[in-house]
Amino acid sequence: MVKWRVGGRPAGPTFPSDERLLTGVAAGALFRGRTTGSIISMPTLLEMAGPILEILTWLCLPAGLGLLFYSGILRRFVHPWAEAEAVVYADETGTGFRWFDRKFQVHHAPMSPHDIKDLAVGDTLPIYYHPKRPTQWQTAAPEAVGSTAVVLGRVLTGIGAAAFIVGFFLPMFRAS
Questions:
Q1: Where are the extended beta strands (E) located within the chain?
Q2: Rounded (10°) angle between helices 147-169 and 45-77
Q3: Whole-angstrom Cα distance, residue 68 to residue 145?
Q4: pTM above threshold 0.90
Q5: Cα 153 vs. chain centroid, distance in angstroms?
Q6: C-alpha distances out from residue 135 to 99, 130, 139, Å
Q7: In this predicted model, what pLDDT tens digit does every residue of 51-90 receive, in sequence order?
Q8: Phi, psi for 62 (deg, rounded to 5)
Q9: CA 36 → CA 2, 71, 91, 164, distances in Å?
Q10: Which residue in 94, 127, 123 sits closest to 110, CA to CA?
Q11: Is residue 33 exposed (0-12), middle (13-18) or buried (19+ Cβ within 10 Å)?
Q12: Strands 124-129 and 3-5, how do they pair?
């Protein structure tokens, strides 16, 4: 019979009374129920899901919440567009728009006749301008600032929250 040391290497000739030496079957009991030379089976799906869900929770949930916080700051403090009613005018200086800002100051935006060909003098249209720089304006409704960050933040937060909830209930379904 081959004798094995606790470290797993074959021992030389020993006496049967040596307590440090074990048989192959007894040595396997020290290594979590595996016998020496046995085939280790793959972990089950539930055993693999725990670490994966924890990694998803730690990566996605803080990143998603951080992006949502960042996009909230962007929407609150970056480029708060103001809306005003602009009137089309034409005089000796040219053609364009005039509007009043929040401080009731008149602003002019000269345009070429080609740009306002569908509008007559005196027509009104909504115009969006930056309150601190009224020369920065546009006629189309502005896009929400940070919309990509909002979408990505919601997706990552959803994945992280779902992984957290599933990881919380996962131990209830493991076999003992």
A1: 3-5, 21-23, 82-91, 94-100, 106-111, 124-129, 137-138
A2: 150
A3: 12
A4: no
A5: 4
A6: 11, 8, 13
A7: 999 999 999 999 999 999 999 998 888 767 888 898 888 8
A8: -65, -40
A9: 12, 57, 98, 38
A10: 94
A11: exposed
A12: unpaired
